Structures
1.
Amino acid sequence: MDKAKITLENLGYNKFFESNRENLGLTKYPVARIVAEYREVYRVRNIEGEFLAKVTGKHMFTAIKREDYPAVGDWVIIEELPENKAIIRGILPRKTILKRKYSNKQENQIIAANIDTAFIVESMDRDYNLNRFERFFVLAIEGNITPVMILNKIDLISKIELDNRINKIQNRFASVNIIATSTVTREGLDDLRNYIKMGETYCFLGSSGIGKSSLINRLLQKDEIKTREMSLVTGKGKHTTTTREMYFLENGGLVVDNPGTREVGIADSDMGIEGVFDEISQLSKECRYSDCTHMHELGCMVLKAVEEEKLDKDKYTNFIKLKKEAEFYKMTDVEKREKDRKFGEFVKKAKNRLKDN
Ligand code: GDP
């Protein structure tokens, strides 16, 4: 994108952010978008250019908790300093949030903010896994982001096999848009390109090795991801690894690259789970007990539907798994320790019983 001509709208700014900025009385400060995140420093961009920006607690307008630290995609209020440096003084309310939770930590981590569409990528080789897709789907729905499925590496399977898979996916996820691509034969890349609109923000999700960087590079039409120099940060023109970064496409779309989304906890995504497993939510309204866990209760309509093969068994199993995970995340550390302690006692008792026999 030609830096001289960009507008805030080109960077994804819109009425939503502007009206929040007005309501918070922050119009006298410039806004900028976070386009890259490094250790303790951010690269931000606005119509003036790019700045290296830091958050300092005492300069923030509002106290923030760990989860609310800026993330790539955020619109922030900045105070410009000499030499293209800046201080981040506040974060404008987010339109959407993509977050994950590590199983051993209490706090959510924001992967990116203000993403409009998440391209969830699965590759057509051995890595193919619909349960994992469902997991990312939950994350997207929870964050208010539109999910689109990309089936990449279609050069590795036959057309018949691809059609079969697309059929299965459509059965399991009724309304999802599917784009089939190959970065090798370049099939489907135009479909992907046509999907992307000016000023909208996209991200690619999926485990490593499925072709996310290759797809982004194809969209950028050069190998920018692996070769981009970060002279701004080091001052020496050296390559520096970023944790996350936004790329600007020719047609005006904005793409956030998310390395390291392999371990995706679904956080406290009850809402996301309900959204994705709408069928199950509908069935559970008819269950005999309002707090039915759908695992063993009499009069459970979900179990009945699985038995009668009206509900996909894999979908049911994945639902139970994600639900348990979400419940575990919602527990406090004390509750988790108590659960572990009870389990320890249970094991001890069981062992003693074995000895007595
Ligand atoms: P990422 O970890 O998801 O970013 O994946 P990469 O883009 O680094 O790709 C992983 C590997 O898959 C590389 O060796 C790519 O060359 C290969 N790859 C990517 N896209 C395709 C594709 O459409 N077809 C085939 N056969 N290989 C691909």
2.
Amino acid sequence: MTRVFKVDPLNPDQDVIRQVASILRSGGLVAFPTETVYGLGAAVFNEQAVRRVYIVKQRPFDNPLIIHISSLEMLYLVAEDISEREVKLIEKFWPGPLTLILPRNPRVPRVVSGGLDTVAVRMPAHPVALALIRELGEPIAAPSANLAGRPSPTSAEHVIQDLYGKIDAIVDGGVTLYGIESTIINARTNPPILLRPGAYPVEEIERVLGEKVAVPDYARGLGEATLALAPGMRYRHYAPETPLILVDPVSGRIDTLVSKVLSTIMELRDMYSKICVVSSKETANAYRSLEGVSVIEIGSRWNIFEVTRNLFKTLRILDTLKCDIGLVEGFEERGLGLAVMNRLRKASYKRILA
Ligand code: AMP
Ligand code: MG
């Protein structure tokens, strides 16, 4: 049975936090809000519970989980040998959506790190997540609380859609702030490498470090990562059930993008009777009057934060419209746009350049 607890996200009821922490303590699985997306948590040192996280999500065992901590003392329970560069990032960005790859403390069960000698760690900036970890008294291992391959959950409703009946509790703290996962950096290499773009733009991280961060193709959602770098990047991700085509504005021109979407719609019309277009607010009117076309607005092209927040919700809404095929407009790969494009490229089966 799955118990659902509603809480005030800014000031969670301590009674609820105590109950939920005790579920985790006895090896249960709990979905909870963070500032990025909802996480599916297990007590990090409980190997059986962590194993169950992979099983209920249907996640491959070599795709490691992120360890969530609520204090710097907890960092040393799961990692070792923190470098000066990492201290700099921690001081500036924690609590917040930055995940660091660090040497694994041997106490951490191998199943948490997918068999790797490194762990991924972050301190979430969400009152519910922090209160829960603090009350448990030890770190929580938590990937996103969705079924593997599905869009990440940005509300308790999404968690219910994917995991109701399979986990012990869901803490409903409303809609998450960023709506996209944390930024993952390996700061042990020269230069540091961006493994996954996320809620903190890489430009901000470069500013704090005073050096460039390498952005490999797989961080842009192109090509594939090798196992050692970012295991999770090898799997199909974030995808709606509706087959999705991304129209990628590599030219940087909005008029070129709109023309390409329109010509693609004309081509697809012979084969598909219902086409859905996920578009920005500014360009939606170009498609609205077309017969057999439904338009879903994702947000303003000039407010990438809004687009980011709506991204996963929109991919889930797409499925409720029962379209034969979906087309999604791409965005500029700058700031949060890099994370949005990473997710859209992974969520789509085909990419058309515009
Ligand atoms: P999720 O929380 O569902 O977004 O998944 C956690 C992400 O962190 C996955 O993409 C993993 O590949 C990544 N990750 C976790 N641990 C490591 C690690 N030790 N090295 C590289 N990537 C990691
Ligand atoms: Mg995930």
